[in-house]
Amino acid sequence: MNTIKQLYDYKSNNTIDLDKVIDDFTPYIKTVINNMACNYLSFEDKEEVLTDTFFVLWKNQDKDITYLEAYLAGIARNLIKEKFKKNNITYNIDDYENLIDYYNNVELFSEKREKINKLKISYKELKEDEFQMISMFYYSSKSVKDIAKELNISESNVKTKLFRIRKKLKRYLI
């Protein structure tokens, strides 16, 4: 199954659904911006690059864009370079040598995003108490002992339930 998103996936009636594109690609573009701009640009400049990236896409929505992720990343990189020139910032190309594979591997990013979306959906399959327990353990970083105290159950019961929940999620994801 091809997971690479193309622009036509986000179009209806020849109009781009920019809200959906922004929702789907903001984390990716923020990562591209943060990796390239590092500490050279202020938070405000990075936010401006982010919004300008989607604005440029909107202006060019009639173009035939094969790989949307790569296109958006290219726009962001070019906007960052313009900011660097405008602010007389020089940077060492060696800083970006290790990022070349990352930027060129759009399919890897798409696969990771798809797995995250599947995980989100699988959480909906959990009962409320199961979701609460897994959230306490993984997202709140609470220990088994703390969870047992808070839920008023034994530690071995918490361990068993966590094991079963992970097993249930694994079955769903596979």
Question: Can you tell me about this structure?
Answer:
With 174 residues, this protein is an all-alpha fold. The chain folds into two domains: 7-116, Rna Polymerase Sigma Factor, Chain: A, CATH 1.10.1740; 125-173. The protein has eight helices and two strands, in the order E-E-H-H-H-H-H-H-H-H. A two-stranded antiparallel sheet has the order 1-2. A hairpin with a 2-residue loop joins strand 1 (11-12) and strand 2. Helix 1 (18-37) crosses helix 3 (68-86). The longest helix is centred in the N-terminal third of the chain and has 20 residues, at 18-37. The protein is elongated, with a radius of gyration of 21 Å. The mean pLDDT is 78.
SSE blueprint and pairings:
Blueprint: E1 11-12, E2 15-16, H1 18-37, H2 43-59, H3 68-86, H4 100-104, H5 106-124, H6 128-139, H7 144-151, H8 155-173
Antiparallel strand pairs: 1-2
Helix pairs in contact: 1-2, 1-3, 2-3, 6-8, 7-8
Question: What labels describe this entry?
Answer:
single chain; 174 residues; mainly alpha; Rna Polymerase Sigma Factor, Chain: A; two-stranded antiparallel sheet; 8 helices; 2 strands
Task: Please summarize what this structure is.
The protein has 174 residues and is mainly α. The protein is built from eight helices and two strands, in the order E-E-H-H-H-H-H-H-H-H. The chain is 68% helix and 2% strand.
**CATH architecture classification name of the largest domain:** Orthogonal Bundle
Number of separate domains = 2
Trace the largest sheet across and list its strands.
Answer: 1-2
Determine the N-to-C terminus distance.
15 Å
Structural class: mainly alpha
CATH top level of the largest domain is Mainly Alpha
**Helical amount among residues, as a percent range?**
55-70%
Q: Mean pLDDT across all residues, rounded?
A: 78
Total beta-strand segments: 2
Q: Radius of gyration, Cα only, in angstroms?
A: 21 Å
**Which shape, going by the Cα principal axes?**
elongated
Low-confidence stretches: none
CATH topology of the largest domain: Rna Polymerase Sigma Factor, Chain: A
Q: What kind of sheet is the major sheet?
A: 2 strands, antiparallel
Q: Strand fraction band?
A: under 5%
